[in-house]
Design a protein that fits this description.
alpha+beta, 7-stranded antiparallel β-sheet, 5-stranded mixed β-sheet
Length: about 400
């Protein structure tokens, strides 16, 4: 173990607000949504007024007076005036309002400049009341959580289902209240400055390659297969019934809103099952192996193909993200390699053996190697990680230890 940055984790709990508190949460979300859209519109007004669609102008022209950029600080200064003109906004905790202004800033800044990697987001959208579901407390006082109750500033004491305790030494830094299809949830961001970061200490020989697929979820280089659950496809019959109810009911009616809520609950149930499957599969892999190698897939590109529904149902991107995070926390290693030709090349001799997608068996005419197509790809993936810099450094360190002990 070595000293590193502060450890931050997030725990999510189910809230049990009273009927009055649930109405108040919805009211806060509605007010925050309206102000979010107003500030976003102010940003767009500045953007449209100050930009020019041409790169040149005549010698004689009239340039209007340009507005100052409504940045985070200038928009935050409008909040005291907002509380004067609209007194009901004074019932919302000030830091919650400031966090809403920050959301506008982050969203619009990513649209104009991009994130830390320079990747720009799409044009921000105005949110309907159904799409604005979360508000955040950027700071929480010590001792705000007592038993199965938490005190939220200017809101009150709310019951929560504390299905797992807060780890010793961790302090609550922020909390977010989220409205979902099946109720309200509280997400706590926890921090501990005394916990050191984990130094990678893995066995380079305990390595496997995994080939992700749609016939089976994954196949390891040792030939182990994890079946694909297809949670969404199994729920399609139920979804079809509920979605028909929506189409039969009048727009704006209470019965239509109930049917929409049923569909949302069913989709959440599918997402929860998929997430649980991903976590369990990642845990099983990291219990058996110290190093896991996978293809560096372009999931976004695959999700636009004719196999889009199956790719989304499998959730490869989410699984690989969970696998990488859990490996990092455990001091293990996950490596991404070039996916080109892993299914076509022979894992034994390296000769290219062209196969169409429906051909599920690999038969090499050169070395007579015969095995399942996905198993062959998994072995190729594992072999491509042999020259990885981290594995080389680990093997050199192990060899030096052996020499010193001798």
């Amino acid at each position: 173990m070595i000293k590193g940055k502060n450890v931050r984790i997030a725990y999510q709990y189910k809230l049990r607000p009273t009927a009055k508190q649930a109405i108040e949460i919805d009211r806060w979300l509605s007010m925050l949504c309206a102000q979010y859209n107003f500030l976003l519109a102010d940003r767009f007004d500045w953007y449209e007024f100050n930009r020019s669609p041409i790169n040149a102008c005549p010698l004689v022209c009239h340039i209007p007076e340009l507005r100052d950029n409504p940045d985070y600080y200038s928009q935050k200064k409008t909040l005291p005036q907002l509380k004067k003109t609209h007194p009901w906004y004074g019932e919302i905790y000030s830091q919650v309002l400031q966090d809403m202004v920050k959301r506008v800033y982050v969203t619009f800044d990513r649209f104009l400049k991009g994130d830390t990697n320079g990747k720009r987001s799409g044009r921000p959208r105005f949110k309907s009341r159904d799409r604005y579901r979360t508000f955040t407390y950027p700071q929480m006082k010590d001792g705000c959580l007592q038993g199965n109750q938490i005190t939220l500033p200017m809101f009150g004491i709310v019951k929560i289902i504390l299905h797992r305790p807060i780890p010793d030494g961790f302090k609550i830094k922020t909390s977010s209240v989220t409205k979902k299809a099946d109720g309200y949830y509280l997400t706590l961001s926890l921090e501990d400055i005394t916990v050191p970061s984990i130094k990678p200490d893995f066995n380079a020989d305990s390595i496997t390659g995994i080939d992700l697929g749609l016939k089976d979820f994954l196949t390891t280089s040792e030939g182990d297969v994890v079946p694909i659950p297809q949670h969404y496809r199994k729920s399609q019959k139920r979804l079809r019934v509920i979605q028909k109810r929506i189409s039969r009911r009048h727009i704006g009616s209470i019965r239509r809103k109930k049917a929409i809520k049923q569909v949302a609950k069913q989709h959440k149930k599918v997402a929860d099952k998929r997430k649980d499957f991903h976590f369990k599969t990642a845990n099983n892999l990291l219990k058996k192996y110290d190093v896991v190698v996978h293809e560096d897939l372009s999931v976004k590109g695959l999700s636009r193909s004719m196999l889009a529904k199956s790719v989304h149902d499998a959730g490869w991107g989410s699984f690989l993200s969970i696998l990488s995070t859990k490996a990092e926390n455990a001091g293990l290693l996950v490596i991404a390699v070039n996916p080109s030709g892993t299914s076509q090349d022979c894992s034994n001799c390296g000769v290219k053996v062209p196969k169409k997608l429906h051909e599920r068996w690999h038969d090499c005419p050169n070395c007579k190697c015969s095995l399942d197509r996905d198993h062959n790809a998994a072995v190729n993936i594992k072999n491509r990680a042999v020259g990885h810099s981290v594995l080389k450094a680990k093997s050199l360190l192990s060899n030096s230890r052996i020499v010193l002990e001798a």
